[in-house]
Write a structure and sequence with these properties.
Shape: rod-shaped
Oligomer: single chain
Mean pLDDT: 81
Helix content: under 10%
Number of helices: 0
Radius of gyration: 18 Å
Low-confidence stretches: none
Order of helices and strands: EEEEE
Distance between the termini: 26 Å
Length: 56
Amino acid sequence: MEEIYKDGIIQSDGSILVYRPTLYFDVDPENEIYYSENGVLYTKADGKPVLYESSN
């Protein structure tokens, strides 16, 4: 049986299985708020990347 913890899934052999999801953004060129470059999401207002911050 596997147990789920915040760091991953502890498998029956004691190893930890960790998943790291990856997002690649492709924004419509007519979007007025965001644009993407090389899969990274940016705001048009300041040209800075939009960073995801976990609430955990």
